[in-house]
Structure formats: C-alpha cells, structure tokens
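To: structure subgroup
Subject: Chain for Friday's discussion

All,

I'm putting the inputs and outputs inline so they're searchable in the archive.
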Amino acid sequence: MLLNLRQREFTKRYNRLVQARPQQLAQSPRLKPTLKVVYVLSHVSVGGGVKIILEQANRLINRGWEVVLVSHYPRPNWFPTKADYIKVPFGIEVAQGIPDCDVIVATYWDHIQACIETGIAPVVYFEQGDEHLFHPERFQHDMKFFVSSQLKLPQFIMTVSNQAGILLKENFEVDSAVVPNAIDHEVFFEKDDFPEYSGEPYILMIGNENTLFKGIRRIIKAVNTVKLQFPEIKLYWISPISPSEPWASAADRVFVNPPQKEIAELYRGAVLFVSASEYESFSLPVLEAMASGCPVVSTKNTGVLEYGIDNINVVFVEIGNDNDLINKIKLVLKDEGLREKLSSNGLKTAANYSWNKSIDELMEYLSRAAQFSVEPYTSLSEWDIKIKPDMFSQTADWDKFLQKLTVVPDDLVYLPVVYDWIDQHSIARWEVAAIRKTQISENYIYINLPVRGNDLDPESAILGKGIYKVKNEQYNEALDYFVSEYSNLNEEWKPICSKWIILCLIELERDKDALNVILDTLKVYEHFSDVYYLYYLLLQLNNSNGEAGKIADTIRLIGDSMSQSEWFFNVEEQLSK
C-alpha cells in the first residue's frame, strides 16, 4: 500500500514538471536571532540520511531555534526527536503540510518544486546522495531530466561532503555549500571493556540486504570464505529490518534496529567493521566505527574518500571486487599492528567531525537563506476569488491564501471546504477558491487551507438529497437514493457514493451487506480511509476489537482521504472519540 501511495505522489510531481519555475527571492531587511526551520521528509525509516536530519533538528533546537518536521509518516520512534511533528495525509502533497517558517529544507530532490510552490519561505535543498547523484547514467532520459530540472529550482543547495558537491557540479551544473556530517562523541567513543560482546571475535556489518548498493550480500559471502581460514571469527549484523532468508541464517547474530548506544557497543567490541557500499556521499557508519576505535575495511566509495586514507585509517577495497574484499579482510585479521594503527588513526579522524562545528556551519548557511523573502510571480488582480475572508477560522489563513495566489503557476486553486452536515462527522470537499481571470490551461492545485462551508443545500450539492435524508435519519430512503444515483455519477464520485451506501447499511443494521460493500469498495479504492473508518465502526459494533485495532492503524497511516473529492474531516480524531 505505501509503495503505491508514494508512487502516486511521485507521478503527480512528475506531471507538474512543466509548471516548474525557479524560486524568486529578494533580499529582506529582517535579521532574526533565532529561526523557525521546517524539514520535509520523504520517509522516516531507519537509516543514516534520516538520522542526520533528526540530529540536525535536535541540535538546532538546543541552540534555541524552532524546528518542525513534516512527513506523510508517523513520528519515528527509533531515534529521539525534540522537534514539533506534522503528519500529512497521503492524499495530498506532503509540502502542503508546511507551516509558516523562515526556511524550508527539502531533503529529497523530488519535492523541491512542491516546497517552492507553497510560497512560504526560501527553500534549501539538502543533498545527501543517492543513485541520481552517483550514477545518473542509469536513469532514463526523462527521469534524468526530472532530477536535473528540480535541482535547478532552488537558490540554496547544501550537501554533506566535498565529494558530493563535486558530483552536483559535474552531473547537474549546480553549486552547493558543504555542511559536513558529524559524530555524537558522547555515544561513539573508545573504551577498553566490552563485557557483552567480548566472548568471541566478530566482524560487524550494517545495512539491509535488499538495498543492493550497500553490499551486504557481498560481505556475507566474503566472510563465509574468510571463515575457512579463521573459523573462530563470527559475523554480527545490524539491520534496520528483520533480514530475510537465506541471508539471516548466514550471520551468527542479528541485531534489528538496536538503539544507538548498543550500536556503539557493537562497534567497540568488533575486531573489524566492514563496509562494501557501491556509493555513499558521506559514510556515517564507517566514521562511527572509527570514533569507537574499531578498525575498518571499506570499499573505495566517494563518501569514505572524504576522510579515508588507505592503510592509514582504513583499508580500501575496490568496488565490486569480491576477491579483493576477501583478501583485505584476511590482511587486517592477520596483522594486529595494522589493526592498532587503523584504530588509532581512525580515532584522530573522527575527532575532526564534531556536531558543534557542523551545527555552527548549518546555522550560518540557513541564516543566510533566511535573509531572503519570496518574490511573487503574479499579482492578486489576476485572480477571480470565490471565497470570503470570514470563511477562514483565522485572519492569518486568509493572508496565507492571498500570498499563495501570487506564487502558484496554476489557473485553478482548490481549498477544502468543511461542512457540518452530519452530527459529530464533519465532511470536507475540494471546491474552487480562485480562478485566474486569463485562464490558459486547466492546471489546478490543491492547497490545504480549510474553510467553513454553509448549511446543506440538497438541490445544489452533489449527492445532497441523499445526505439530507441521512441527516434526518431517513436511512431507507437515503439508501435507495444513493443506489439509484451510483451509475449516473462520474468516476470520482462513485467511491463517495459507496461510502454513503455503507453508512446507511450500518445504520439499518444490515451488517453483512455493509461488509460486502466495504470489501468490494476497498478492492477498487484501497486507500480510501473513509471506508476503512466505516469498517472500523462496523467491527466495533460487533465487538471485534482486535480487528478494529488493525483497521485503526491503517487509518492512522493513510490519514484523511484528501485524494478524494469528499472525505471525513480529521478522521484520525474520530478514532479517539
């Protein structure tokens, strides 16, 4: 389900590429001692890239700044976070959850345009490296053009290493500032006793075997060969998720998403840390191993080249050369003096990467971006505005709406209009809020600024006659209406009609019929949280609390069905009621 949801959002972003415009900024006289920064995250899964973002957020807060994290996913629980957190429903562009702020940090290339189109603040793109940076030749022409076009939109780009900055310039002709990654030296440090893991000599590796460029499968095969000569050596594996077979059985011990302090203990107890990544922009695990006094064998990837020196603080392996990997592991295992040299020099290297220094540089760069304000592309006189200021719950929201009209490239702007037609269940519908007077296209944008609607007019509202009957508890008549109307509706309104049919069946205690319609609807509209919500209610009414809990988890993951023309407003809040 999640893969499908992310792909739908990616496709929408790709289709908006024709409307992409570089962000226009003007020098602003404002100089604020502390800033409000919003990080937009594509995902919050366990990994070095997300970890760096969360570290930056926490440490900016420690310096007195305000930080907000925005994502489609629930707040991560694998790393402590101090920042405010906004979870945006999957049905709408994640950037629509960005609140007022001084700087927006886009953390992946595919949402740069969406962040700029909010018109809220200067956008800083944070490049941490991925296949687009290291192997753009693997991308088809249209996808490479997509990446290149996005990277040319922001005026500010920062990255984690000089090596990544060079690749940005070579592959995409954009300049960047380097804000290096760092190590938490209160967690990753050397000490002499490792009581939990000192019973057997082991090699340590970190990563997901299905993330092929990380080279986990290569390490497993190499260590199996090494064990023929060093049978006492074990293989310990730290993985963000439970590994699959046959790979899981190949390791002597597996640690699934352990806390940071346990990871540090595992580094300290290892005789050797091995990394076989094909590419990295700044290899955090290698530097963490060095900071913990653990000798390192690593592929000669771009990220490790930022700080690694062959046979000084790391033993390099040629990328993709399995025999070289085997031989270099054997070399380090045989030579205690080499291990001591690697450990000693690695500690010196890691000491150069402190968070205090990194955050100083980050604050300086973000402060520079915050000295600019967003310049409008158009004037308000170009718009025919269909809504009124008093429809917003706050005056500030009206001002936000007007400001957004000056930056959006579209000719139609939709807002969610919230109606209290049904007791305890507010309903929202996308409705046109503004039309460009000189309309040259049918391009539209959904902006997440809810406004309050009027009382139900059965004659003018789509499905209004049936909803009016539901409001008056005339469920048999309402059901007949919705069933008769279904075939006459446009495709976008059929799932909405199905929802109302289900609601009527539940009210009429026709639970079996309701369940059948629920299951049939979810086969076609698998992301429609309104139907999951009615499913949840049906299960609760039948005391199936265990199953209801699972459905509730799905609702919390998807959030409001804002990809539909109508949805239950704040459906997650309904669960708590």
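Points worth raising on Friday:
The chain has 22 helices and 21 strands.
Residues 2-178 form a domain with the Rossmann fold fold (CATH 3.40.50.2000).

D.
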